[in-house]
Every structure is written in structure tokens, then in C-alpha cells.
Amino acid sequence: MSETFKVGGVSRLNGQVKVRFANDLTRVKNLAKSGHTDIELLELPSAMTKAEVVKHLMTTDLYKNPEYQAVIDAADAKYNAAPKQPRIKAEKTAKVTKARGKPSLDAIKARANKKAAAPVAEAQDPATPQESFQAAVDAVGDEAPF
């Protein structure tokens, strides 16, 4: 539930003007005690939220003062701004460094033969390519690339 106020206006503290919200005019006394100057608080026609108070201040004589007008406009941007839309994160894309297709059986055999070339060279040369492939697979064991 939104907090509502019955009094709204502006005041200056240390040279800076701000929009003020209160529930009664005794707030003037507290602001003056705290060092505020140029205290301009008005009773509102009904209890209002901060956003409604700022809209109402735009219809008063306070809005005719250029300095107050800038402060009220800033408060309007703060309290009556459209709700922020959630940011949509961009999808991450993978960087492809080398185009790779589906490996062919010949490529797999060539890699297996290349890895097993040293142990096979020491062993007896098999007669057929199938035997050569099987010898390479046996030599590599569980570390075969397929």
C-alpha cells in the first residue's frame, strides 16, 4: 500500500531546493528548526501519494517560479517515470575458429593409424588395411578416438 500525504511543497537547505512531503503543516516548524529556508508548503485537497503530490504541485503557483519548476520537474521524472522494463540479456554466441564437419570414417582411421604408427611399426606388418586398422585399435586400447 502506498504512503499518502496531506501537505506538499518545496524548501531550501544549504542552497539546494527539494520537494517536501508531510502529513500536517507542523512540518514547517521542524524544517525551520533544521535550517531550511524558503519553506513553501501547501495543504493538499486530499491525501495523495508522492507521484500525485508532484502532479498537483505542477498546477500551483509554486510551478511559476523557474527554480521551483526545475525541482518539481525533476521530482516528476523520479516519481512518475514509466516503470523500467527488465533488461534482456543478449545471447552468447560461440566463436568458431575452424569449420568442422562430421568426421568421416577415413579420417578416424587415419588418426588411429597416426597415433598407433610407432607401436605398429615395431610389430609385424599386417597384410590388409583392415588388419592394420585393428592393430592400431588394439595398440591404442581405450584411448581410441571413436
Tell me the series of helices and strands, N- to C-terminal.
EEHEHHHHH
Return Rg in Å.
Answer: 40 Å
Report how far apart the termini are: 65 Å
Tell the overall outline.
Answer: rod-shaped
Indicate the low-confidence ranges by residue numbers: none
Strand order of the largest sheet: 2-1-3
Main sheet record: 3 strands, antiparallel
Q: Note the total helix count.
A: 6
Relative helix content: 25-40%
Backbone structural class: alpha+beta
**Integer tally of domains:** 2
**How many beta-strand segments?**
3
The amount of beta strand, in percent, is 15-25%
Q: On the 0-100 scale, what is the average pLDDT?
A: 80
Structural commentary:
By secondary structure, the chain is an alpha+beta fold. The chain folds into two domains: 5-79, no CATH class; 105-140, no CATH class. Helix content is 40%, strand content 19%. The protein contains six helices and three strands. The protein has helices spanning 27-33, 50-57, 66-79, 105-115, 117-122, 129-140, and strands spanning 5-13, 16-22, 37-48. The protein has a three-stranded antiparallel sheet, with helices on both faces. Helix 2 packs antiparallel against helix 3 (66-79) and helix 4 (105-115) packs across helix 6. The protein is rod-shaped, with a radius of gyration of 40 Å.
In short:
The chain has 146 residues and is an alpha+beta fold.
Fill in the keyword field for this structure.
146 residues, 3 strands, 2 domains, three-stranded antiparallel β-sheet, rod-shaped
Summarize the SSE layout with pairings.
Elements: E1 5-13, E2 16-22, H1 27-33, E3 37-48, H2 50-57, H3 66-79, H4 105-115, H5 117-122, H6 129-140
Antiparallel strand pairs: 1-2, 1-3
Helix pairs in contact: 2-3, 4-6
